[in-house]
Design brief:
The chain is built from 14 helices and no strands. The protein is an all-alpha fold and about 290 residues long. α2 runs antiparallel to α11, α9 packs parallel to α12 and α10 packs antiparallel against α12.
């Protein structure tokens, strides 16, 4: 979230600061009616082009950004350490050994050692649901793989709804800016009896619409959509890590090897080394 606002501040200072330093006056750029036309038309098109589900999903995006922005190397190490402990307990005590842990994670010693994971509803829901299916013993690995893949695809589709909605608004903003500019030029031409200086000022004010439409689209709305898309990819990546680890375990690999399968799914920039992960697992309780 900090980087988003930092980027917006840089865009604003660069555009308006550069214009001011070049000798321009900021006063003429403030055109409330142009802003009303552009923002109002963009809002109207957003409401008209989306259903209630998409609108609510877009409004809830900020909470998703705050959560998935924390999916860093420490989070991945915590997740894989937790999976290692759960799979080791399952291998040692049988599937029934982790039943209480997954039914009441808040009361589980294993989960309480990783509070960062325990507080994340997306990770917790995915891990506990599929461990519960594994404990039942009635799922074939191929069937479980297909089920997990389908759930991840559904999650990705739903999580991308705000991205698509914002990108469409961003694509329309320059056009709405042109609409506002055309209306302003028409107003200026309709005032032919006015002096040249007044008509020139009206045309200049009209061109502000084009400027604002382009600035809002490429300086604010589209970057926000791109940021949300990257956060969706982060969430999908962590679900894929869980999926690969659980499938490896279900196919008979030892917990240490199963976790290694999951580690290999991570991007190299955030992937812990084998030694780092082993040391983290042995270190005991994780601190959030």
């Amino acid at each position: 979230m900090v980087l988003i606002f930092l980027g917006f501040i840089i865009v604003t200072l660069s555009v308006f600061g550069g214009f001011s330093l070049s000798g321009g006056h900021l006063g003429p750029l403030y055109q409330p009616m142009e802003i009303l036309i552009i923002v109002g038309a963009a809002l109207g098109s957003f409401i008209a082009g989306n259903n209630g589900k998409a609108i609510k999903a877009t409004l809830r995006t900020l909470s998703r950004l705050r959560r998935t922005a924390k999916y860093d190397k420490d989070t991945y190490m915590d997740l894989m350490a937790l999976q290692y402990k759960l799979l080791s307990k399952m291998r040692r005590e049988g599937a029934i050994g982790i039943e209480k842990d997954i039914e009441s994670p808040e009361e589980s010693t294993l989960f309480s050692e990783h509070p960062r994971i325990l507080r994340d509803p997306l990770i917790m829901g995915f891990v506990t649901d599929y461990l519960r299916l594994m404990v039942s013993g009635s799922m074939d690995p191929l069937e479980l793989d297909e089920l997990m893949t389908h759930e991840i695809e559904v999650f990705e589709h739903e999580a991308r709804i705000p991205v698509d909605a914002l990108l469409k608004v961003g694509d329309g903003l320059p056009a709405f800016g042109i609409v506002a500019a055309v209306l302003g030029v028409m107003k200026a031409l309709a005032s032919a009896e006015s002096g040249v200086a007044e008509i020139g000022a009206m045309v200049a004010h009209a061109l502000v619409g084009t400027f604002l439409g382009i600035l809002l689209a490429y300086g604010f709305v589209n970057p926000m959509a791109s940021r949300i898309e990257r956060q969706v990819r982060e969430a999908v990546k962590i679900l894929q890590c869980i999926r690969v680890t659980l499938l490896a375990s279900l196919n008979g690999y030892a917990p240490q090897l199963a976790v290694e399968f999951g580690r290999k799914t991570l991007d190299t920039a955030e992937r812990p080394t084998f030694g780092e992960l082993e040391g983290h697992v042995r270190s005991g309780v994780s601190r959030a």
